[in-house]
């Protein structure tokens, strides 16, 4: 076992994948969230401004999905194969909606007819909602465990097996989290009446999140005991949920003060902390097997060789500053409120 | 229909559709960099107009390339789980490198490229354009490396047995520079440049025929013609190198490309032909000993034929592979002829006088696309029955957990969504071409102040 800073390579790569997924959730989270509110904005101009708030960045945000997927494939091939083949239908639906959403964004502004815009508005909004929901569904299934058997092959089946009680809860929670997050992003990008309307929507979004998050947490504690093991064995870890709750509570406080930059920061921190919670609940397991502990997929039996992980950790060390540099450059170029010009959607 | 066949159909369909776009993005990227560099050097506004115009079309191909690319990445896990487990250590690291180094670069600068014209200094914008172009070139590097490793594995060792066997990396650079990657990469790059250049030629030839935007179209046409000439000739060299490599590393594939059955004999080269697998003969127009000559500069050198390999270790679709390969070559030769003829007319000062020539250029745009597609079909079908040459069979590579009805369901969905996507592409492309290179302010693009006043007052 090679180690670096006292951590073995699979653990380091687990952190890398977690960081990439956090980045993805924070970034695509706000544009899925903004899209989810789309139909709540009634005026054509408002919709256009809201769409152009994510216009220059939504494509770039999806890069994190590609990199995160690649990182999982390369670092934990066994997990990648098991997760994608056992949740075939939700992943395929996810792909369809991601394409359909891109189609809607591109098509919307191209013709002047009312019905045309309305059709693509609905397409854009529904696909944004479904994408956020499906990400949560996948997460719920991973937390709860799947019927993984010999040789890491999934033994379950059935078309809708992925849509169970818990997965629906985590799906709705993810959607509500992204909706709050997206509303804050839009507030940073808009002014005037639309801004006023969004403050009201944000309140609703936050209440929606608190309720769904509360119910899901309760259900987790009561019915999925294996997720609490880490905290039982190591009470000092309770600091993480504490921080998460403080961060969650901080968002409405800042929103009330109209400090939306800070609110967005804390909304992002919240997403990261919730994923840290997930990571603690899982580690070192990646995917629980419902058929017996011996079939669990963990970071050791799923990992690529240390040689391969070492190469990729080098990639990450070189690549991360570059990626952050580009991201910073783009967001700096497009800072401030939305300005519509001939390049807008 | 079993899972294997459905998964293969799905992969073929989604990857072929995907591959319409990245080559166009790479090719148009090169042209954009050229236009914008000329603009910055000369200050000639016409070149800025051209760069802006082609950037819009580039945005379209890039966007579709991205979403269909995400599909490809996920598909390895959903449909080919056994394959993913087997090659993840090696193939996965190439994909991860693509994401971290190439794709992040492209997408990072894309926003500035598309929306930053009026926000950043011209040279900053040029740097962004170059960033996006290089990013797309690097993407091709890693993807071709990953696929070349499937064709000619190197720098790995096999660990474990049966279902748990997997390839692990032993030497990263040996994996990257495996025997076929450099030859195939240059071939892919040039194919992409040609796809882009001929689309530019096509659109501007159309404008010239319709007598619109004549001055800038002449300028754009000439630049694209130079690009097309240089790279169509260059493609001869990279193609030749690739074929040599196939002969050395994948003799069964080479034999299939030319329909060469005899175990060891001088091999002919066909201009066109038809393979009869049962009778083991090819009928058509041939250069006797041509293949031997190309490989060894001697018409009598024996070439290993299909019969030298057991039935289950050689490709079965010989005629299809033969036809795809020959279509690619025929198109390559035609592109050289038409480019050189264009240069000849240019030299005589009559480039824009012949309407039939311009019309030819309008329709030639489809040919590099076809060549890129059939070239890949030949490369991938020629590798069969292996998914990793000599190591893993395609029939062992698909997901054990997935059922045929699930694959069929997603295949139908893809078919619908991609049809919609293709309609969108054609519609938008047509709209952008009809609209032309110059921006006319329409009602929707009033200045921001009015826009915001409208929102506040509720109109």
Automatic annotation (TrEMBL), chain A:
GO biological process per UniProt: aerobic electron transport chain
The entry's keywords: Cell membrane, Electron transport, Heme, Iron, Membrane, Metal-binding, Transmembrane, Transmembrane helix, Transport
First-listed, main subcellular location of the protein, grouped into a coarse class: membrane
Pfam families the record matches: Cyt_bd_oxida_II (PF02322)
Topology class, membrane: Multi-pass membrane protein
Gene Ontology molecular function terms on file: electron transfer activity; metal ion binding; oxidoreductase activity, acting on diphenols and related substances as donors, oxygen as acceptor
Superkingdom of this protein's organism: Bacteria
Cellular component GO terms held in the UniProt record: cytochrome complex; plasma membrane
Subcellular location: Cell membrane
NCBIfam families xref list: cydB (TIGR00203)
Similarity comment: Belongs to the cytochrome ubiquinol oxidase subunit 2 family.
Protein name: Cytochrome d ubiquinol oxidase subunit II
From TrEMBL, chain B:
GO MF entry, a single one: oxidoreductase activity, acting on diphenols and related substances as donors, oxygen as acceptor
Membrane topology: Multi-pass membrane protein
Subcellular location: Cell inner membrane
Lineage per the UniProt record: Bacteria, Pseudomonadati, Bacteroidota, Flavobacteriia, Flavobacteriales
Family per record: Belongs to the cytochrome ubiquinol oxidase subunit 1 family.
Keywords: Cell inner membrane, Cell membrane, Electron transport, Heme, Iron, Membrane, Metal-binding, Transmembrane, Transmembrane helix, Transport
Organism (species): Abyssalbus ytuae
Gene Ontology process terms (BP): aerobic electron transport chain
A single GO cellular-component term on record: plasma membrane
Transmembrane regions listed in the UniProt entry: 20-41, 53-74, 94-116, 123-145, 188-209, 221-238, 324-344, 356-379, 407-429
Protein name: Cytochrome ubiquinol oxidase subunit I
Pfam family, one: Cyt_bd_oxida_I
